[in-house]
């Protein structure tokens, strides 16, 4: 059985692999699993046929036999639980990797997305110049803690895991920003992950 | 081995069980696992001893033998993978429950927290009355999709799962707001979950 995942027919990120299909493609490349891509227009995302698979009208979805999933974090976890390579076997290390997966999508990503939304939707508002620094400070707080926790290590806890995969994918949204550049160890962490052959294959495939 | 979780010594929610120890307490009650609570002052959250367990200086943490975790969603997942009662056995149903777990913490919760932060931090700003409706609209979009997906069902997919637990815990943050009241099926869904004996026990314990 080969899974099918959905992606944007035309990604708004212009090839930077920031859309949510990327972590799923990357995870599938890490475990060496072949997969098919089904590309959807923005109009198709809002159709009932897609909402049946993805209640919020987003990408990606993952279909494989009887399994039908949504949420990139959940799909990466499903792949990691199913096939070796993305989660440690030892209970303590596995638990720590799960912690980092959720930290990526629920503690770090929300402040990064809030910043993107502020830049995208509020740039022409009178309050933009006063509010952006408030939003930036929330990102800075998270990055400071993340940088301190990573320290001089290659990965967040032992070997590369699904926790690193999701965290790097979040940090990649800040590529080129001064916020990320304030932490050389985070820049190196992202570069280390992007150098992985599986990342490279996934990146090339989504282009 | 009995796990120890951390909670606020004085929760800022004044007894409403909205802090992140609640989903963990609730999950432990659902699977019938005894547990110890260690209460921390706000000052203790920022100390190195705690940051070693929780890099972002938050609650809860979960310690059990060699396992040391953070992130309430990850801890609930760890409990659900370890003990029966919170995740279906069948692969397709399990995958769907994982999808809902991540949807709760990474698709619905961020817009709900953004609204809380707006009410808490921007109420005295000149832009408050113009920006709040923008923030509310993002919450409405998510609730509309969630309500449509739940429909007349008791739970998001088949039996009650960790996905419902995390989603209800997010929706509880909107208790009393008109945003939630616009969807009677979501109000009933929250009430149904809060009526579960495990929820009741966890709620009483955190008071």
Task: Tag the structure with descriptive keywords.
homodimer; alpha+beta; 207 residues; 9% strand; 4-stranded mixed sheet
Overview of the molecule:
2 copies of one chain form a homodimer. The first copy, chain A, is 57% helix and 9% strand. The first copy, chain A, is built from 10 helices and 4 strands. In chain A, helix 1 crosses helix 10.
How are the SSEs placed, and which strands pair?
Two copies of one chain form a homodimer.
Chain A: E1 4-8, H1 21-30, E2 36-40, H2 42-45, H3 48-51, E3 61-64, E4 67-70, H4 72-82, H5 91-121, H6 128-150, H7 162-171, H8 178-181, H9 184-194, H10 197-206
Parallel strand pairs in A: 1-2
Antiparallel strand pairs in A: 1-3, 3-4
Helix pairs in contact in A: 1-4, 1-7, 1-10, 5-6, 5-7, 7-9
Mean pLDDT score of chain A: 97
- Estimate the strand proportion of chain A: 5-15%
Helices and strands of chain A, in order, run as EHEHHEEHHHHHHH
Q: In terms of structural class, how would the helical and strand content of chain A be classed?
A: alpha+beta
Number of helices of chain A: 10
Brief rundown of the structure:
Chain A is α+β, with helices and mostly antiparallel strands. Chain A has helices at residues 21-30, 42-45, 48-51, 72-82, 91-121, 128-150, 162-171, 178-181, 184-194, 197-206, and strands at 4-8, 36-40, 61-64, 67-70.
């Amino acid at each position: 059985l080969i899974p099918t995942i959905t992606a944007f027919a035309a990604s708004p990120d212009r090839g930077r692999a920031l859309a949510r299909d990327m972590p799923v493609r990357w995870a599938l490349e890490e475990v060496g699993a072949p997969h098919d891509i089904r590309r959807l227009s923005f109009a198709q995302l809002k159709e009932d046929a897609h909402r049946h698979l993805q209640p919020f009208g987003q990408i990606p979805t993952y279909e494989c036999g009887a399994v039908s999933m949504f949420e990139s974090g959940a799909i990466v976890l499903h792949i990691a639980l199913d096939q070796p390579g993305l989660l440690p076997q030892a209970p303590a290390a596995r638990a720590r990797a799960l912690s980092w997966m959720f930290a990526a999508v629920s503690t770090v990503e929300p402040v990064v997305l809030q910043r993107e939304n502020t830049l995208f939707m509020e740039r022409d508002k009178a309050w933009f110049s006063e509010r952006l620094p408030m939003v930036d400070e929330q990102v800075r707080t998270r990055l400071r803690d993340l940088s301190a926790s990573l320290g001089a290590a290659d990965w967040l806890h032992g070997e590369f895991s699904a926790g690193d995969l999701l965290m790097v994918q979040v940090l990649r949204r800040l590529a080129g920003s001064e916020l990320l550049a304030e932490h050389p160890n985070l820049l190196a962490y992202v570069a280390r992950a992007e150098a992985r052959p599986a990342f490279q294959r996934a990146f090339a495939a989504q282009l």
